[in-house]
Amino acid sequence: MNQTQQPSPSRTDGTDGPAGAHPADGRPAAGAVTGWVLAFLAELLDVSPDEIDPATPLDELGVDSATVLVMCAGLAAEFGIPVRPRDVLDHFTADAVGEHLSAPLPAGV
Fold first, then answer.
1. CA 14 to each of CA 5, 19, 24, 62: distance values in angstroms, whole numbers, following the listed order
2. Which 8-state DSSP code applies to residue 44?
3. pTM over 0.90
4. pLDDT tens digit string along 69-85?
């Protein structure tokens, strides 16, 4: 590691892998994903994450197709899993995105 690289933050839950990941299957915890989505939206809206109801449809918060693409890239980078726009568009609240991305993958995937 050179001097400009910073070490990854150490895990406090005793597991390896992305923050908020379930140790057994590597899928993120629903609450971690929901929290990330709320923090992302709060940054865009210039409000506190606590001011956003996680059950509010994302389009009511101003999320459009471009925002979905940025959200997918951010979620993939944060949690180390592939996230497609369809994953967000078919589950269009912060809570629903968290539940969907935390669900076990079907067998063979």
1. 23, 11, 12, 38
2. H
3. no
4. 999 999 999 999 999 99
